[in-house]
Amino acid sequence: VPLGSLRRRVATVGDLDIAVASDSPEKVIEHFINYPEIKNVESKGERMSTVILTNEVQVDVLVSDADSFGSLLQHFTGSKQHNIKLRELALDFGMSLSQYGIKQKNKLKKFDSEEKFYGQLGLAWIPPELREGKEEINLAARNSLPNLITVQDIKGDLHIHTTFSDGGNTLNEMVEAAVELGYEYIGISDHAPSVTNRGMTEVIRLMDDKREEIDRINEKHNKIKVFYGYEVNILKDNSLAMPDELLEKLDYVIASVHTSFDMPRDEVTQRVISALENPFVTILGHPSGRTINIREPMDLDWNEIFKVALKNKKILEINSQPTRLDLPDHLVYDAMKLGLKFVISSDSHSINDLMLIKYGIDVARRGWCGGKNVLNTLSYSEIRKVLLTK
Ligand SMILES: [Zn+2]
Ligand SMILES: [Zn+2]
């Protein structure tokens, strides 16, 4: 079982820590240090070892007896803030916590599962994604933690590129791959063709052809339905890269910033607000514009953005691309508290990308979202109403 930030599904992790329950720790350690991708074994003890992989990632393994495995998992999953608050609670009961168990009146009680460990403190088991020292301990005491979304709740994916723009697979290939995943629907959201470059007549012709192709799929397919959308750039001058009279022809529109991220707070906030006030925009795509470890998020006034999005009934995207994970989890939490709704999207550029949606699920869970906060958990007929009444 992974430990620490990996188990809590934090957007970025450093070292990897893994816990193993076994009554023959020496065999586990021996097996671990013989893993082929290891560059160097840094340390090797009876129950612990540290290695550096060929990709420079450090991995620690910890072996524990099965009867205290729950305590070990709890201790090393963290976060630090969560464990500090948990320790304060334990102190009120005259207990002290460690990786070995819970001590009361000098007697150590061991726990083979986390459920029992938390249970000893009068708490429901807390999903690792929530262990950040917010209000999870209070809610666990009242058994009223949120029922977090899972990947099985997802009924469709609304951010998909095809060979009509920069995708690597055709519309039909994407449709068939989505059928394989058991989706009820997908939304095709290629980058919108440029009217400036191609001219109005040409763009209308392209759109009509594509609409025809999508209609054909929808007629013949009894397993899946396709929505026709575009991902439209929010330009520097606050306008959208496609005129309203063309946006009107679509089932839905994702508006995204792809250029000039580095604008002053007021200007960039107004730019996104202008998109949120456009009646044809349905979803705000990768709202912060960050690329993890490469590009900082835009300097947006989130209070203002969330207020305008709520007023105009716009949906916020949780983009699942591992380099984006955008909206970031702490902002998902804030927006969720305000009552905003999300879609979790893969932003697929090939059939293999479709499975990336699980990383967006991680973000949503870290933002305390249940199925009811995420609109692509709705059935086809329900999501159709949401998208087409826009
Ligand atoms: Zn995009
Ligand atoms: Zn995209």
UniProtKB/TrEMBL annotation:
Transmembrane as UniProt keyword: no
GO molecular function per UniProt: nucleotidyltransferase activity; phosphoric ester hydrolase activity; zinc ion binding
Positions of the Polymerase/histidinol phosphatase N-terminal domain: 156-236
Domain of life: Bacteria
Phylogenetic placement of the source organism: Bacteria, Katanobacteria
Protein's recorded name: PHP domain-containing protein
UniProtKB keywords: Nucleotidyltransferase, Transferase
Originating species: candidate division WWE3 bacterium
A GO-annotated cellular component: cytosol
